[in-house]
Specification:
This protein is an alpha/beta fold. It has 31 helices and 34 strands.
Length: about 1000
């Protein structure tokens, strides 16, 4: 035996010998409790610690603090405490009892438990996905009919395989709950509040409410029996807002139902699942429609002004299917989760999404994870989990609380997708987690930072599979001063790092706007907005909050962000919501309540979050003004604020700063400036009596003037630039339009056109670069030019980049625009009919003949343009033309025009444009088959698209959707074209 192991055994023996003396054990335990309390809550460092001190109200312990305390106690006394201790202990005396009872049991064995029985047995080859289902209830009915015995959920157990719920079990249990609801005081369309822990009863109840035609309203259950009364008081506002008539909960909470009914007049019944399922009677399921509300998602922490996100069946299925499409799901998938089922990430992402795809779900309670974070990793090992999800703090908790000795033999090689979302993603957490667990088979490319929000069901943007985390390092001073995310040098130690959270799901869009609501270019920070089929229609019975949510048909995400390379990078929050350990805390009501305390100046309280790199989440900070300066008076105020925080938000603050009057910064209209107060706090300029606070505040107030003035100047400058740019374009376009009819030769007209385009860019300060000009074919040699299409500016950019004339292949509708037709006719453009197949074929043949005669057409092969970055599928017209004429294709890549003028916007922005001329791609050699022209065109298209994709700097939005239409379709149209299949034909025009 090694010396290290021998020393460890001696330490454990010594700890056990000391634990035999209860008085000594109590003293040592109080020392550990006091040590952890002082570390976690510096403002409570002097608070007395006794055996009967209440951990949360007296000592400021929240859930993460309890995890730290139990870990320290287990290490100090060399024992393994039961999981119930995490939820049951309220005082050090309770912990002492658990410690004395456990000291003889010794430490838990370090080995990882045996592998569990596979969940996929007997299910291979079965159809898995109800694509035709339009509601969640239809999806469950389909699974229960097609493979009723297929395992759906396994409730995790350390000791054995755990309890399994099949699709038949879920459907039968849900029907019993639905029947029980209909025998009571319930009518379809009413809200049913569900306050249950993770378990079989929760799953039955949620779908039972849906089968009954009701609206489930999940709220989180109390962590400990002693919290039930306070817990119900905190949720009375939600019950009243949703007009819930039934509360389904645990037996312990039912006894206090009268308390809740007194504050929520709509509530008529408080019932347990057992009571519901015991009722019998006739039941006919009502019709559930896609537009019906599937459930109300109340943002965690909703109290005084609850915001219930309304989500329909159509919303949820659109989101679930879009996420599934992004994840390339395989047959052997297993999802392992500890996420709470009252939160969108756990309810939709972990459960309902896996129900739709018939992916087995291994689930444990959040308390089981918090008590022993290593249990999450062990569950992935035992059940060969392929994907799982958690907020950033959970990965940090594994780094800090899982010892190597606890996970000996752990194998994480099956874990292909590790989602990190629901709160700010820390790039250091991503790096350290990948490095630490690489020895256990975890692959860095499995980590997937994602972005979503309840208002978009759950998911909004996902990164490509297998890419791994992408961290963007930007220049700190430039970003802080201008909001521009300018890439930093690799050796820049002061660079800011932002994690790429992926690209919008299929059918969804995002944009970043300035304070005026105008879309910003790439790499510029602004307010994030989104839209798509998963987006909510608003907040339930809260028109004021709904009005703030919408900006036309766009929804405000409440976050600050920028887009780079198609990926969204979250930089902060425009809202003041604090995200702490995955839970949202709204500061307004908390500030009002603290301001009402005796000794605190009313209206002079700021509650904000401050990043805590150690825990990977945010610290909850309360800054309150008071004139009381005596230590005992301040200690009383801190205790009252601590207790108030537990009542209102369920967690004590991490820091309470009592400051003199005129410390809390406000706007001219009297609103608290929480972000400015946070900056003051993080710079250490408050909370120190020896500091001249008034002088610090004055400096901060003066410093705040600079960013405001800078923003105003930027907004004014942007508007002036837009007006100036359109003036330049109008003047040059008018001149070109007048010259077009009088310049005799095509070469001369092209030189005039190109010169005007270059002049416009020069006058607007646009940096313009052409790369690869040496790849252009020599004069007189015909070629087919193919370009991506990002903006209406592309037409002008082509003229500025190419020294020789090309014939734009344009949609036939442009003939109806007199101003445009004069220019295009004189540039000898080719018009293509997109909707009449016979005319389209004639146009295609005409273009091919022109190529054989020595002309060079230019196709915008995407056929349309969009405001979102990304390369769309290519239509086939250009490539069929090239093959028939045996002419090379010259790829052209345009970068920068989308950010300067997006589709749907007429507000140009300054920027830089680059055109890359690729090497000509010759058509593949011909064969003998009659369809050889088509197959050669397909291969040519793929080769050219690969070249453009490699240089465009935007995501691939169409590789798996590239059209494979018949060779008799018309070629793709040019500027501004959109694709539409001919009548009766499901294929797209080429």
């Amino acid at each position: 035996m090694s010396e290290h192991a021998s020393n460890g055994d001696q330490a454990r023996d010594q700890a056990r010998d000391q634990a035999r003396d209860p008085a000594d054990t109590a003293a040592r335990l109080l020392a550990v409790v006091g040590e952890v309390a002082a570390e976690l809550r510096p403002h409570l460092a002097n608070a007395p610690v006794g055996l009967d001190s209440v951990l949360d109200k007296d000592l400021g312990f929240d859930s993460l603090g309890r995890v730290e305390l139990l870990v320290r106690v287990e290490r100090a006394f060399a024992v393994s405490l039961p999981e119930q201790a995490f939820a049951a202990v309220d005082t050090p005396r309770d912990l002492l009892r658990a410690l004395l009872a456990a000291h003889g049991a010794g430490a838990r064995p370090a080995a990882v438990p045996r592998a569990a029985t596979p969940l996929r047995a007997g299910t291979e080859g079965a159809a898995s996905v109800p694509y035709g289902a339009q509601t969640l209830t239809e999806a469950l009915d389909w699974h229960a009919r097609v493979h009723p015995e297929r395992p759906h959920i396994r409730l995790y157990s350390d000791d054995d395989d755990g309890e399994t719920i099949t699709f038949r079990d879920l459907r039968d249990g849900a029907e019993r709950v639905a029947r029980g609801l209909h025998q009571g005081d319930f009518r379809p369309g009413q809200a049913v509040v569900i306050m249950l822990p993770t378990g079989r009863e929760y799953f039955y109840t949620f779908f039972g409410v849906l089968l009954a035609g009701g609206v489930p309203v999940p709220i989180y259950p109390p962590a400990r029996p002693t919290q039930i009364e306070d817990h119900l008081n905190r949720h009375a506002g939600i019950v009243a807002n949703c007009q819930g008539r039934t509360l389904v909960t645990v037996a312990e909470a039912k006894r206090l139902g009268g308390l809740l009914r007194a504050r929520a007049e709509s509530l008529r019944e408080v019932v347990t699942v057992e009571e519901l399922m015991a009722r019998d009677g006739a039941f006919t399921p009502p019709t559930v429609r896609p537009a019906d509300v599937a459930f109300l998602q109340y943002t965690s922490g909703s109290t005084g002004n609850p915001k219930g996100v309304v989500l329909t069946h159509a919303n949820l299925l659109a989101n679930i299917r879009a996420m599934g499409e992004a994840l390339d799901l395989q047959r052997d998938e297993v999802f392992v989760s500890w996420l709470p089922l009252y939160h969108d990430m756990g309810l939709i992402g972990a459960w309902l999404g896996n129900l739709h795809y018939a992916i087995p779900l291994v689930i444990m309670s959040p308390l089981a994870f918090l008590a022993r974070p290593g249990r999450w990793l062990q569950a992935i090992h035992r059940h060969r989990g392929t994907f799982s999800a958690a907020p950033n703090f959970a990965y940090e908790l594994c780094l800090r609380r899982v010892a190597d000795a606890d996970i000996a033999g752990l194998d994480l090689s099956s874990w292909r997708r590790a989602f990190n979302g629901a709160e700010a993603v820390n790039p250091e957490t991503l790096r350290r987690f990948a490095e630490r667990f690489a020895a256990y088979g975890f692959r860095a490319e499995a980590m997937m930072p994602v972005y979503g929000l309840a208002e978009c069901s759950v998911g909004l943007s996902f990164p490509p599979m297998g890419r791994g985390p992408l961290v963007d390092r930007v220049k700190r001073d430039v970003f802080m001063g201008t909001g521009v995310a300018e890439p930093a040098d690799s050796d820049d130690a002061r660079a800011l790092a932002f994690v790429a959270c992926g690209r919008p799901l299929t059918g969804h869009q995002i944009r970043v706007v300035d304070g005026s609501g105008r879309e910003l270019p790439e790499r510029q920070q602004g307010r994030l907005q989104f839209r798509g089929p998963s987006a909510t229609g608003g907040y339930f019975r809260n028109p004021e909050a709904t009005a703030e949510l919408f900006d036309g048909d766009w929804l405000n995400a409440g976050d600050l962000a920028y887009v780079a390379g198609g990926d969204v990078h979250i930089t902060g929050r425009s809202k003041d919501i604090i995200i702490r350990a995955g839970r949202n805390i709204h500061p307004t009501e908390f500030e009002d309540a603290v301001g009402a305390l005796d000794g605190v100046r009313k209206g002079a309280v700021a509650v904000f979050g401050s990043a805590d790199p150690a825990s990977g989440t945010e610290r909850l900070v309360v800054l309150a003004e008071t004139r009381k300066r005596q230590p005992d008076q301040q200690e009383r105020l801190r205790a009252e604020i601590n207790a108030l925080a537990i009542d209102l938000v369920g967690a004590p603050p991490d820091d309470v700063v009592l400051a003199p009057p005129r410390t809390v910064l406000k706007t001219s209209s009297g609103k608290v400036r929480r972000a400015a107060c946070r900056d003051l706090y993080e710079r250490g300029l408050i909370g120190k009596p020896q500091s001249a606070v008034w002088l610090q505040v004055a400096r901060m107030a003066l410093a705040a003037v600079v960013p405001q003035a800078r923003w105003s100047l930027r907004a004014a400058g942007a508007a002036l630039f837009a007006a100036y740019a359109w003036g330049v374009i109008a003047a040059i376009a008018s001149t070109l339009w007048c010259l077009a009819p009088v310049v005799p030769s095509l070469d001369g007209r092209w030189r005039v056109f190109g010169g005007g385009a270059r002049l416009a860019m020069r006058l607007t300060g646009t940096r313009f670069t052409v790369e690869g000009a040496e790849n252009l074919p020599p004069p007189g040699k015909a070629a087919v030019f193919v370009s991506n299409h990002a903006s209406y500016l592309d037409f002008m950019v082509i003229g500025a980049a190419l020294p020789r004339p090309v014939g734009f292949v344009s949609k036939a509708e442009l003939r109806n625009n007199f101003f445009v037709r004069v220019i295009l006719d004189r540039m000898e453009a080719e018009y293509v009919e997109r909707f009449d197949r016979r005319k389209g074929l004639d146009d295609a043949k005409r273009v091919s003949r022109r190529v054989r005669d020595g002309r060079s057409p230019l196709f915008f092969a995407e056929g349309t343009l969009t405001r979102m970055p990304g390369l769309l599928p290519f239509h086939m017209g250009a490539f069929v033309t090239a093959v028939e004429a045996d002419a090379p294709v010259v790829p052209l890549v345009i970068r920068g025009t989308r950010s300067m003028l997006r589709d749907g916007s007429w507000f140009p922005r300054p920027g830089a444009i680059t055109v890359v001329v690729g090497r000509p791609v010759a058509p593949p050699p011909s064969g003998e088959a009659a369809a050889d022209t088509w197959s050669r065109a397909v291969r040519l298209r793929d080769a050219v698209r690969d070249v453009i994709l490699a240089h465009v700097g935007e995501p691939d939005l169409g590789r798996e959707e590239l059209p494979m239409v018949r060779p008799d379709a018309a070629p793709g149209a040019g500027p501004g074209a959109t694709s539409r299949p001919p009548a009766g034909d499901k294929s797209s025009p080429s």
